[in-house]
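#structure-requests
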Amino acid sequence: MLRILLMGLVLFSSIDCQARNTRYFLSNEGILDKPVAQNNLPDKDVQIYYTGQDTPKVVSSFKVITSHRKTNSVGKTDRTACEWAYLSAIKALQAKAKQIGANAVIDVKSDYKDNELDTADKYECHAGATVAGVVLKGTPVVLEVAKNEAESNNKK
């Protein structure tokens, strides 16, 4: 009996048991315009500006914030799971920024395992058999608000 158990242990230990971790560099173009994003995730009061994008005048700036987000990828394509994780990371950046009094997050970029993508149009996502993850970082700021925008906000 012991011999059978030992043989089984040897056979089992020789099987490759590594989890899948597929690395993707995906376009973020249009993700925030999708209906799922418009209906569920991003906060309209906190604007997002990617690396290199022009912004209105910065009135004050805060410490860089990071958002590590994962989502269940069971039953989803890797792309869909990555987009969900990306939207969740954007939502978390906006929530952190709003909490400290910022009205925007600028210089938003992907930063998975400290691999900074200094580009406005791509992000890194890692997808496994059951989970997909995205890491974004950016700088929360208070941007100068145009006079007519400030007036419309005061009427709310």
